[in-house]
Inverse folding.
């Protein structure tokens, strides 16, 4: 058996346990302690968002977005079908309807040119997902939203440290969300953040996150007692998670650079296979700086994906694919609806392979991955 190359290998900076020990020693373990506040400031500084709030996960932050927009039964939110389930679940849990539109051929992001035609009197928001940490066409999306009176909620789960025309992903729409799940770039095991950019939503965001109470204002001394203000839940992580995340946030720049170097290596190594017409490499628009969250290839349309994955696995290389488009999944058909043809979503999603990419991935492992892919594609 050849040595395994895992798909993901969570990167630890080495300071996580030190900060956790300090939080332990401080004896402040509930949420919104010193480490959480430090993380909030750092996220605000790095993204330029108005207000960052740590959550248990990006899924939780997306649910907060739906609560903040007061999504009601029958309300519609326009989103790509090619995304993770959490983008749609957040809407469905409020009784809302995800309306799926097709993606762009180049970035696999929502096709902004199809959004306006999907708007109905029930449409409340647009939910762009920045696939692979590469920005959606936010200028066009914000313009449609403004003209049609809609909110924009960014799923920037994969987009921490990426920019669109110089602005951080997650800081452009009314609300944004990051993920710090173990499979993302900057991690805390499970974890996420809600980004609030619309000043009118800041206070309610704090309330919804604190079980529907104004406890955050109470702790700041702005009110003399805290009371139940509206429907909310508990979305704040404890300090141990924040302490772990703080170690990662301190090195967010280095973590991103390390991944970008490996992303570029793949990109160079795979150019000959693209020239042969056997696959297509990712396309990064000139106005988007990305965080190298993912390296994927799109196999030529006439190549069967499964034998390629099998061959890689036989060589000990764990490459994966995702997503089954939501419009074709059982829950997507039950709760959502597709607007227009989904041909690019259907065609591209079955051709995609994600290659192992992680902080510190050795050059030799990348060479082996590319060689195995070469062999599989020349079968
Ligand atoms: C990872 C991911 C999520 C979910 O993030 P969690 O922190 O695991 O809840 C949501 N949307 C997209 C696009 C993701 O990639």
């Amino acid at each position: 058996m050849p040595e395994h190359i895992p798909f993901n290998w969570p990167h630890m900076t080495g300071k996580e346990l030190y900060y956790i020990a300090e939080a332990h020693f401080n004896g402040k373990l509930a949420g919104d302690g010193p480490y959480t506040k430090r993380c909030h400031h750092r996220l605000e500084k790095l993204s330029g968002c108005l207000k960052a709030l740590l959550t248990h996960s990006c899924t939780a932050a997306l649910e907060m977005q739906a609560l903040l927009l007061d999504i009601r039964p029958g309300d519609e939110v326009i989103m790509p079908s090619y995304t993770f389930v959490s983008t749609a679940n957040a809407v469905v849990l409020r009784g809302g309807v995800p309306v799926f539109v097709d993606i762009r051929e180049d970035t696999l992001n929502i096709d902004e040119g199809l959004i306006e035609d999907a708007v109905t009197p029930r449409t409340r928001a647009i939910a762009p997902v920045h696939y692979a940490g590469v920005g959606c066409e936010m200028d066009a999306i914000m313009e449609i939203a403004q003209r049609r009176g809609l909110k924009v909620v960014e799923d920037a789960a994969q987009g921490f440290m990426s920019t669109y025309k110089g602005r951080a992903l997650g800081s452009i729409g009314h609300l944004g969300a990051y993920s710090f799940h173990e499979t993302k770039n900057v991690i805390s095991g499970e974890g996420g953040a809600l980004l609030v950019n619309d000043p009118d939503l800041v206070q309610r965001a704090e309330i919804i996150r604190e079980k529907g109470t104004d406890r955050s204002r109470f702790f700041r001394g702005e009110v003399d007692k805290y009371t139940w203000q509206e429907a909310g839940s508990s979305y704040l992580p404890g300090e141990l998670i924040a302490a772990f995340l703080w170690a990662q946030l301190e090195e967010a720049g280095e973590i991103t650079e390390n991944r970008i170097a490996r992303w570029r290596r793949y990109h160079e190594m795979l150019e000959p296979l693209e020239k042969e017409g056997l696959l297509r490499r990712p396309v990064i628009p000139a106005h988007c700086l990305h965080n190298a969250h993912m390296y994927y290839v799109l196999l030529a349309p006439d190549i069967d994906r499964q034998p390629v994955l099998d061959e890689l696995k036989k060589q000990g290389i764990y490459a994966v694919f995702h997503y089954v488009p939501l419009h074709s999944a059982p829950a997507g058909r039950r709760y959502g609806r597709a607007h227009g043809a989904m041909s690019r979503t259907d065609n591209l999603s079955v051709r995609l392979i994600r290659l192992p990419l992680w902080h510190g991935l050795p050059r030799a492992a990348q060479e082996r991955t590319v060689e195995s892919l070469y062999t599989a594609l020349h079968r």
User: Anything to note?
Assistant: The CA atoms of residues 109 and 131 lie 6 Å apart.
